[in-house]
Design a protein that fits this description.
The complex is a heterodimer.
Chain A: E1 15-26, E2 29-40, E3 44-49, H1 55-63, E4 70-75, E5 78-79, H2 85-90, E6 93-95, H3 108-118, H4 134-145, H5 161-172, E7 179-183, H6 191-202, E8 209-213, H7 217-220, E9 226-231, E10 234-239, H8 241-246, H9 248-255
Parallel strand pairs in A: 3-8, 3-9, 6-7, 7-8
Antiparallel strand pairs in A: 1-2, 1-4, 4-5, 9-10
Helix pairs in contact in A: 3-4, 3-5
Chain B: H1 14-33, H2 36-63, H3 70-84, H4 97-119, H5 125-144, E1 155-156, E2 162-163, E3 166-167, H6 171-193, H7 196-206, H8 208-212, H9 218-244, E4 246-247, H10 254-267, H11 273-292, H12 298-312, H13 316-328
Helix pairs in contact in B: 1-6, 2-6, 2-7, 2-9, 2-10, 2-11, 3-4, 3-9, 4-9, 6-9, 7-9, 10-11, 10-13
The chains are: A alpha/beta, B mainly alpha.
């Protein structure tokens, strides 16, 4: 078990993601306070904490949806603190959202195609994608990976909740992701869908790391190597799943008796 | 899992193609069965108004951006042609018509792009307000500038050219000129719907934050949409001054600005053809209001139609038609 790291140089960084003293305020509210964290390339990590602990704000700070008001963030050694969200995505960072953010008036195929196109060339093309466009083939491959090939032409608003979560993950996997930020991907899923989700996450190529926010510890602790516990916008503890489960402080504030 | 027909997105159907062919054939033979009044004052005017409304439909329907400055863009093109070319006030530079038109299209498109660059800083009601402010500003600029734009009087004597012995101001040639330009614009907009750019615009309309999280530069896409819309509106502006033979601040005031919004909403923002359906209804009411109620009550009449459409069919007449088709279609289960 170790406490969160303190500020240090990014030069020659061996990490996929480094956060140094990251803070985010909304007026007088301090949502993130001096958060520091190192994530290795290919690492799978869970970020746990009670509601309001700052987990989603942390994701928003990393992706630039709500940039940090203090601190620095590097991605594979590059300082991305000032970059707009789309530039961070093009560098291999991906995310899903707590509440599915999909294009409800477009088809599953269109959603996956846009995800592919967003991280490739030709984003401004006035041409319709032809059958020989690599993005079309990649779209269909991704649909198969997330088990949505049967509903490719269906409008997204007609999908079940579970299918929408699968689509979220499929879109996040477009292109060549290096680090995924998964915000409660199991929320609202049935037991069978959760099993599928775990299988999907465990089946990701080893070079793709992810950070997962998940309240279902049966999902979160089975697919990660490391866990970060957050409380009141700060990193409270870090360690392996077994270390976290055994930690009396963590049990007291978060896990409860059932995980002793 | 299976979806109903309404839930499945398919490409262009044979029925769609057939409808387009039938309408296009009708539009081709229309001048031969209609009087000059119906050819120009109803036919050509509907096409041109529809084209300017099409630029708004493109922005609002595809991109979710309601701009009230499209008439200003069209007016910019019209004024530029008047200033660079020949007009009856002898204030024009006398350029050849083609050079004047090309430069007018370029200047108006740049003007529309600039409006976009300013407007995309905002969303929703604020976009409407900022583009309305630009439209009002341009109106007052035109009204007060006598050195170049001839102030309140504007310009008259603006005519389409005579090419190859054909006077394009004559009703039938002018109708076909309008139809050709409008057809190109319409099919470009329809084509763009399923293009990468069109899909990305629809994604931005549905969820701009998500589009950023997919790697799209949302701001740049929105500005480019304004550029495309400005290109369409500027062609409409040139045709409009050739139709009317004049342009003045009244052509770009609040009235025409709201008219285009009304046309686009009445027809339906969901599909490019809505702009032309709205334009036909608007033109018919404008010309024949006098037969229904007093002509000075036209705004009351069109306002009532607008209100009814907004209340009962937010997708316009096109949405009403689609609802009717769904109700009358046999069950597929």
């Amino acid at each position: 078990m170790k406490d969160s790291g303190k500020a240090q140089s990014f030069v020659g960084s061996p990490y996929a993601l480094e956060l140094r003293g990251v803070g985010r305020t909304f007026g007088a509210l301090v949502a993130l306070n001096d958060v520091s964290m190192n994530v290795q390339a290919g690492e799978r990590r869970a970020v746990l904490g009670a509601n309001g602990a700052g987990k989603t704000t942390l994701f928003n700070a990393i992706t630039g949806d709500f940039p940090p008001t203090s601190g620095r963030i590097t991605f594979f050694g590059e300082d991305i603190t000032e970059l707009p969200p789309h530039e961070r995505i093009r560098r291999g960072l991906r995310r899903t959202y707590q509440n599915s953010l999909l294009f409800n008036n477009l088809s599953v195929r269109d959603n996956l195609y846009l995800a592919q196109r967003g991280v490739s060339r030709g984003r401004f093309s006035f041409r319709r994608p032809g059958a020989d466009d690599p993005a079309i083939e990649q779209t269909e491959n991704m649909a198969r990976f997330v088990h949505l090939e049967e509903v490719l032409n269906l409008i997204v608003s007609a999908l079940s909740h579970g299918q929408q979560r699968q689509l979220e993950i499929g879109m996040a996997l477009a292109g060549a992701p290096r680090l995924l930020l998964l915000d409660e991907p199991a929320a609202g899923l049935s037991a069978a869908e959760r099993t599928d989700l775990m299988s999907m996450l465990n089946g990701l190529p080893s070079h793709i790391g992810f950070i997962i926010i998940e309240h279902d510890l049966d999902v979160a602790l089975k697919v990660v190597e490391n866990v970060t516990i957050m409380e009141n916008g700060r990193v409270f503890k870090e360690g392996s799943p077994s270390e976290i489960q055994e930690d009396p402080d963590v049990q007291a504030i978060y896990l409860g008796e059932s995980h002793r | 899992m299976r979806g109903s027909n309404a839930q499945v997105i398919r490409g262009t159907s044979q029925a769609d193609v057939l409808w387009h062919v039938l309408v296009f054939v009708f539009l081709l033979v229309y001048p031969w069965i209609a009087s000059p009044f119906w050819t120009v004052q109803i036919g050509a005017q509907s096409l041109i108004l529809g084209m300017i409304a099409l630029s708004l439909t493109f922005l609002a329907g595809y991109g979710g951006m309601v701009s009230l400055a499209q008439v200003s863009v069209a007016g910019c093109a019209g004024y530029t042609v008047a200033v660079l070319g020949v007009n009856s006030f002898n204030m024009g530079l006398g350029w050849p018509w083609l050079a004047a038109v090309i430069l007018a299209i370029v200047i108006a498109t740049l003007f529309g792009t600039l409006i976009g660059a300013i407007s995309v800083q905002t969303t929703g009601i604020y976009t409407i307000m900022i583009t309305l402010a630009i439209a009002v500003g341009f109106y007052y600029f035109a009204r007060q500038n006598y050195n170049i734009l001839n102030g309140w009087n504007g310009f008259a004597g603006l005519k389409p050219p005579v090419i190859g012995g054909v006077n394009w101001r004559d009703p039938v040639p002018f109708y076909y000129l309008s139809l050709a330009v409008v057809a190109v614009a319409y099919f470009v907009v329809v084509y763009l719907r399923r293009s990468t750019f069109g899909l990305s615009l629809q994604g931005i309309r549905d969820n701009d934050r998500r589009m950023q999280a997919l790697g799209f530069n949302v701001r740049a896409h929105r500005i480019l949409a304004y550029t495309v819309a400005a290109l369409i509106a500027s062609f409409g502006g040139v045709l409009m001054i050739w139709l009317n033979g004049r342009i003045s601040p009244g052509s770009i005031g609040i009235g025409p600005t709201i008219d285009i919004l009304v046309i686009a909403v009445i027809g339906g923002l969901g599909h490019p053809v809505g702009a032309f359906i709205g334009a036909v209804l608007f033109t018919l009411l404008e010309n024949f209001a006098i037969d229904l109620i007093a002509s000075e009550r036209f705004n009351l009449l069109i306002g009532a139609v607008f209100l009814a459409i907004v209340l009962f069919s937010p997708d316009g007449l096109l949405g009403l038609w689609q609802k009717l088709r769904q109700w009358t279609a046999p069950a597929t289960h």
